[in-house]
Design brief:
The chain has 282 residues and is α/β, with parallel strands linked by helices. The chain has ten helices and eight strands. The structure holds zinc ion (ZN) (2 copies). The site of one zinc ion has 4 residues, from loops.
């Protein structure tokens, strides 16, 4: 049988509810599914109870965006129990940090002569989680800028006067916290790292391996066979285990199915079993 160790639901940026993702996993005959929403485990309880009644093994997980300036570094953490724990608590702190980031941006705009209140911004978000697009919308409504794009280009974007960076975990810090919490850290979709030379990749993997990294995502949607084999070899050379998953996002990634990716993905059970042997909390 096959597994899928990377998927997203409405708890982050997927289109299907956690229950729906579990239903799909059961329907396509997977033996295990990891739900790995971005920076949150909010969907895990619903997914777990849906899985219990269907016979599917639901692996609680999360996917973290890490602080790395070369490119996008994501870390999937598998077998991370929801609730309290070193990584779980840190994620909760980062979420409340997001609120203070919005507050800082609003203060900065006000001091720049463009008064905006956090109440207006919250109203713009309609009760959902507040982000820079909502601040930009208020700026348009107040007539400070003609459109959202200008708000970002002139004021809110990276390097502009009202830019406030997002707090992210560093790679080593995230890996340490994941291990302390009993989870199994896996470096996601290595092609997004922006690394172009073998020497640079070797340096990075050596560094992350000594911090406690366990896996490297090799069997990934959109990778051709030689890329999957290449990343699996790379993993083994650096003492890491190959992992695999579809990175399912529902209708937000058209043509990509849970379990089978673009049609040719199949992650064997033994990939899960090898990784599981590194989880310290059952
Ligand atoms: Zn990712
Ligand atoms: Zn993902």
């Amino acid at each position: 049988m096959t597994v899928d160790l990377h998927s997203h639901s409405t708890a982050s940026d997927g289109s299907d509810s956690p229950t729906e993702v579990v239903r799909l996993a059961t329907e396509c005959g997977l033996s295990s599914l990891a739900l790995t929403d971005h920076d949150t485990q909010e969907g895990i309880p619903a997914a777990m109870s849906a899985a219990t009644s269907s016979g599917l093994e639901l692996i609680p997980g999360v996917e973290l965006s890490l602080d790395y300036d070369r490119g996008g570094m994501h870390l999937v953490v598998l077998w991370l129990p929801p609730g309290r724990g070193p990584l779980q608590d840190r994620l909760a702190e980062l979420r409340s940090g997001r609120d203070s980031r919005n507050l800082l941006i609003v203060e900065r705009l006000t001091s720049l002569g463009l008064p905006v209140t956090i109440e207006e911004v919250a109203e713009e978000a309609g009760g959902g989680s507040v982000g820079r697009p909502h601040i930009a919308a208020v700026m348009v409504a107040r007539g400070y800028v003609p459109d959202l794009r200008t708000a970002f280009e002139v004021w809110l974007g990276n390097g502009r006067p009202a830019y406030v960076g997002r707090a992210r975990l560093g790679p080593e810090e995230a890996i340490n916290l994941a291990r302390e919490s009993g989870g199994v850290p896996v470096l996601s979709h290595p092609h997004t790292l922006g690394i172009t030379t073998a020497a640079e990749m070797a340096d990075l993997l050596t560094r992350l391996r000594s911090a406690g990294l366990v896996g490297l995502e090799a069997i990934y949607s959109g990778y051709r066979r030689h890329e999957r084999d290449g990343y699996a070899d790379l993993a083994r050379r650096f003492g890491l285990l190959p992992s695999g998953g579809s990175d399912y996002h529902g209708t937000y990634k058209p043509g990509l199915s849970l379990g089978s990716g673009y049609g040719d993905l199949a992650v064997p059970d033994r990939v899960r079993d090898d990784l599981r042997s590194h989880a310290t909390i059952p």
